[in-house]
Amino acid sequence: MINIRHKLTHLGFRSIFYRLIILFVSLSAFIQITLFLSTSVLMKHIESQIKTNYEYSLSNLASTINNLFDGIYQSNYLLALDPNFLKIFTTEYAEDDLTKYADYTQAIRSLSRVKSSSNYIDSAYIYKRKEDIIISDNGTYLPEQFYQNLFDTKQYPPAFWHDFKANHHLFTILPPSQTSGNDRNQKESTISVVQSTVGGRYSNNLYIINLKAEAVRNLLRSYKLTPNSLIMVSDPSGNLLAASQIIDSDLHAFMSETLTDPHEKFDMTYQNQQMHVIKYSTNFFFRDATMIVAVPHSDITSFLNKMKNWNFTVTGILFVISLLLSILFSKRFYAPIRSLVQTLQRSEHKKKEELPFNELEFLNTEIRRILMDVDQLNETLSYSLPIATQHFLGKMLKTSFPYDNKTIDDYLMKLGFRFPNRFFQIGLIQCTFRKPFYDLYSEKFQTEASDTVHRILQALLPKKHPTYILELDTNLFGVLINPASAIDIDSSSYFELIDTLFRQDEAALRIHIGMGLVHENYKGMQISYMEAMKALWRVSPFDSKRIVYYSEFDHEEPRFMLNKTEENILTNLLVAGKREELMEQLKQLIKANIDQSISGTSMKQLLIHLYLIGIQVLKQKNISFEQLAPFETSEFLLSADSGSVEEISGFLFGFFDRVLALSNPSPDTFNIQRFRAYLDTHYAEEITLDILADKYNTSPKYMSRLLKNELGTTFYRYLQELRIAKAKELLIASSDPIHKIWEQVGFNNRNTFIRTFRNLEGISPTDYRKYHQPESLSL
After folding, report:
1. Which SS3 state, helix, strand or coil, does residue 692 take?
2. Which domain of life is it from (predicted)?
3. Which of 389, 553, 600 is nearest to 480 (CA)?
């Protein structure tokens, strides 16, 4: 009987394992079937859409070819702006007119620019039929020399061009022909685009652009959706203009047969292959054309068959892999469940007869019991302070709270809180975020930084005594320790850990820590807080010590130290302009007062005394007090907050720096006329407010305000206007390309230059040059 129950127990454990396998296999099978069905539907959709997709491809191809001819038309329009070219094209020169040779030279340059404007253009030339001369991008030739030796096209002999009539069409596109002649164009095919009108000016002469047939063929090939498909282009007369493969007699016959069929989509046979044919009517810059696509049926079916076979193979492999993974994951998930049940059974010291048949029911019962134990534990051990309690304790520490211990205890009980012990010790942690912190991190991170520090302090709290974190002020945290007695308490390890942790980021965040002594009752808590404040004031920014412990010998509060000799030394150093010696003297004076543990009030008195020394020096130099930005100075001096030692030190150093700059002006002292001359010389260089502030010994913020007062606008806008003015001069006076001009005037990229130019001038740089540059330069 015991053996049977033992087997049933094991079967109960195994039942979860089998359930997990069935769950994972079912999910995997569902995913595989869904993927298989969706892939099958997708292949059906591909099979139905692959033929119609060619219509979209042909539409894009027609747009591309239309852009090609649009570029040719744009070159026609640009040539119409060239008076020399128009003169060559429309005027018949007298035989003894020597001016024609200069015009010929200018026309050759214009044709060279047309040729280089597109990779599709092989050559461009003018055939002046009455004068019997050809002007090409390579030079001038007689027609017999040109057509027989350079561009010998059997399909278009010299007589063809001599008798050609364009009938005033914008373009006449001729079928491709193979050329021969010199090595450059041997056995190459070209498509000739013939024009007898340039810029609306009709002429008996011909303007011919030869397109590279191979380049057009490659363009058609790039729009093929299957490897063996064909793309052809014909004109309204049935002439084959271009194709995705080399044109031969079979291809001519196939195209002619497709054009005679009245349907737009039909099947035909080409070279023993069954083809699906699509005809697409379009036009290339006002010239009608027909585009024909022939897709072999074998391309479509072979592609889809490969996809179907691949779909079956992948589905099978994935199912086998998913089955193996299901078994593996089931074992992984089941192992901790079995171990947990066995552990809980051992903790209950149950006999074998009491082992559960169903581990799920057993786990449910045990989890409920554990949750009840956790609730009881939380009620006993929770030292987390509610928000209202934190506010009350912070107010009690920072002010002389008049109530006795019983009144405070009663109020805390109403808030649902009580201290377990009657002894208290306060530690204060001052966080000072430095300039690199604001430079490196985003505003969102800066806003959340104080909360992050609070969470770190909370997470590292020691467990030996009840300890709480109070946020007393901005970036000022109080550590409230509630020991059972005034002896046998060592909180230094916690604060040393905090100091070590934050020293790694001291460049961005500096931590100062002050510790008070252990005292009894709430009055003693306030005394410990005051002791911690005094200790915090003794942390000097000039040495590496970051933790100061209050001692019983620190009761007497000393006055700040500044004797008459030190005053005279500071005054003389200021008058003499000896900055390094002055700053060293000031640093020693501040450190000496900090070492004496003076209070914040005394430190503020020292600050005012030193400030008056600087004012006295300015009076001796007959310098106006307003130049010190008095509003910012008064705001700091008259504030109710005494400020930290680091803030006071920073203010004093900045103040004496300003007094030195005013009383001992250097050759680089700011002068608006010299500043304008400096910008006129260096406008193309990288110039920022930080660079200017360093040059004129001031801060970027002050420099920005000064320049706005002097220039009547912001420094950035003044610099942009100056650079655009220089760019306008270059656009008018030179023929340099736009990209060289924006580099010469100091812009970093083309988009910024064009956007700034439009904002200030209302038009683009190209249009500005077009409307303002003299005609001699524009040509």
Report:
1. helix
2. Bacteria
3. 389
**pLDDT tier at 4, thresholds 50, 70, 90:** very low
Element (H, E) at 717: helix 715-733
Tell me, what DSSP letter sits at residue 543? S
Is 649 part of a structural domain of the chain?
Answer: yes
User: What is the SS3 assignment for 498?
Assistant: helix
Going from the C-alpha of 301 to that of each of 50, 56, 222, 260, 292, the distances in angstroms are 11, 21, 21, 28, 21
| CATH number for position 396 | 3.30.70.270
What integer pLDDT is reported at residue 225 of this predicted model? 73
Residues 537 and 398 in one domain: yes
Kindly tell me if the per-residue pLDDT of 629 is higher than 60: no
Same-domain check for residues 496 and 624: no
DSSP secondary structure letter of residue 174? P
Least confident of 250-254, 648-652, 710-714, 769-773: 648-652
Final residue belonging to a domain, choices 623, 640, 663: 663
Average pLDDT, integer, range 403-409 = 82
Residue 719: HSE in the Cβ half-sphere, 13 Å Cα cutoff: 22
Angle between helices 600-620 and 645-663 (to 10 degrees): 0
Domain that holds residue 678: 672-778
CA distance between the termini of the chain = 112
- With contact defined as beta carbons under 8 Å apart, do 636 and 649 qualify? no
The answer to whether 142 and 131 are in contact (CB under 8 A) is no
**Cα separation, 341 vs 356, whole angstroms:** 10
Instruction: Answer yes or no: are the C-beta atoms of 449 and 442 closer than 8 Å.
Output: no
Residue 101, domain member (yes or no): yes
Burial class (CB in 10 A: 0-12, 13-18, 19+), 528: buried
Which of 167-176, 547-556, 608-617 bottoms out in mean pLDDT, i.e. has the lowest? 547-556
* Residue 366 counted as domain residue: no
Cα–Cα dist 143/152, whole Å: 11
Give CA–CA dist 360/344, Å, rounded: 13
- Say if residues 522 and 401 touch (Cβ distance below 8 Å): yes
Q: Verify that 628 and 737 share a domain, yes or no.
A: no
What's the whole-number average pLDDT of the chain? 77
DSSP 318-364: HHHHHHHHHHHHHHHHHHHHHHHHHHHHHHHT--GGG--S-HHHHHH
Answer whether residue 286 shows pLDDT above 60: no
pLDDT at 265 over 80: yes
Residues making up the chain, counted from first to last:
779
Task: Name which residue leads in pLDDT, 634 or 462.
Answer: 462
Query: Quick check: is 302 in a domain?
Result: no
The total number of structural domains in the chain stands at 4
Which has the minimum average pLDDT: 61-65, 134-138, 145-149? Answer: 61-65
587 and 465 together in one domain: no
Residue 428 pLDDT? 92
Residue range 188-193: mean pLDDT, rounded: 83
Question: Which has more confidence, 62 or 250?
Answer: 250
Residue 443 and residue 488: Cα distance in Å, rounded? 44
Distances (CA, A) of 366 to 12, 363, 371, 372, 471: 17, 5, 9, 10, 40
- Cβ contact 531:554 at 8 Å: yes
Residue 210 CB-density burial (10 A; 0-12 exposed, 13-18 middle, 19+ buried): buried
Check residues 385 and 208 and name the one with the higher pLDDT. Answer: 208
Distance CA 718, CA 675 (A): 12
pLDDT of residue 355: 43
Q: What is the mean pLDDT of residues 561-581?
A: 80
Model confidence band, residue 334 (pLDDT cutoffs 50, 70, 90): low
pLDDT at 408 exceeding the cut of 80: yes
Q: Which of 176, 195, 216 is the last residue of a domain?
A: 216
Count of C-beta atoms within a 10 Å radius of residue 242: 23
